[in-house]
Amino acid sequence: MPPKKKEKETEQSPLYLGRFGTSLKIGIVGVPNVGKSTFFNVLCKQSIPAENFPFCTIDPNESRVAVPDDRFDWLCDHFKPPSKVPAYLQVVDIAGLVKGASEGAGLGNAFLSHIKACDAIFSMMRVFDDPDVTHVDGEVDPIRDTETIFQELRMKDIAYLTDNIEKVHKIVARMGDKDKAAKNEYETMLKARELLQEGKDVRKCTWSNKEIEALNKHLLLTSKPVIYLINMSEKDYIKKKGKWLMKIKQYLDEADPGAMMIPFSGALEQRLLDDPDNAKTFLEENKTQSNLNKIIVQGYKTLGLQYFFTVGTDEVRAWTIQKYTKAPQAAGKIHSDMERGFIKAEVYKYDDLVEHKTESGVKAAGKYKMEGKNYEVHDGDILMIKFNVTDSKKK
After folding, report:
1. Contact, 193 vs 165, CB < 8 A?
2. Which of 309, 313, 317 is nearest to 84 (CA)?
3. 10-residue stretch averages of pLDDT, the chain, 395 residues long
4. Within 13 A of 85's CA, how many CA atoms are on the CB side?
5. What predicted TM-score, i.e. pTM, was given to this entire model?
6. Most-buried pick from 3, 136, 152, 376 (CB within 10 A)?
């Protein structure tokens, strides 16, 4: 019985590429003058320089933006607490990359290190024409730009692996089969470098759990998940047309099958931010809508994050956890004592609260559950943690 249980837990908690944690960041990446800083400004409602010259952004600008959620809004309206704490997406505006960045061009080494510090990528693709916003390569070509970006990331990963493979090889040569972890790491690094040299990104390849464990020691640039943001002119976005949209879709279908692409207009979003009083009317008259909420939500999800709620008349709060988190570890996000002294989690679903209006109504309907240490918390669960900490555990 115990082995079967462990097997089941392993199936439910797959390994994935990237850092483990909840303080994860998504970086806005692209060549210069494609609208990264404008997008960052409207996303985070800030005002950082967004000038018409390459490398306007040098140091990475970092901020956080609340994750929009109708469930959170309903819970706040229902309980009317003085404290309302949503989940947040950490966003980093990274300076524009140019061809040769992996060899230091355009302050490339510094900018690539900023990408390494992030856990996912918003890949910004410019499709708007604007004579007042010059393109670093002269003419607009989002496919060329994207190939430039990811070629530079691959080149940097190859250089990194080449430098580090020899270090791991020395351990393997000295220890032989005695150090199986080092041997696995060495073989995985060789495989990754070979795939990169073939023009394949690490995230697009198939890896075993052991290989993922080895890769996660290195956090390669091409292992990070990507969402492609298509920055359109206001006019084209409203019309839902543009000469590049179909070309980009065809390109991504071949180069990155299953990848998410989200069209938006930085110019439109800036208009809405600058004139909030007339924003709703403008959207209605033009039969369009902002795509910022979708971008935020998908950015949060691509980091492998979700959240559960704690609710009451004092506070409604969304607690960020990674997918496949068990109840005790989720409780630990609230307070370490809750994880250490975890007894059980009282759990019910948002939809059941909406239907039955009150917690007592949820209980009467038989929808209020008691869950133990092996319960895997789901996105949107409402939790009440029962715990007990005694001094006997302290030494």
Report:
1. yes
2. 317
3. 46 75 92 90 68 44 92 97 96 82 57 89 94 76 95 94 94 86 95 97 95 95 97 96 95 95 96 94 97 97 97 97 96 96 97 96 97 97 95 51
4. 14
5. 0.89
6. 152
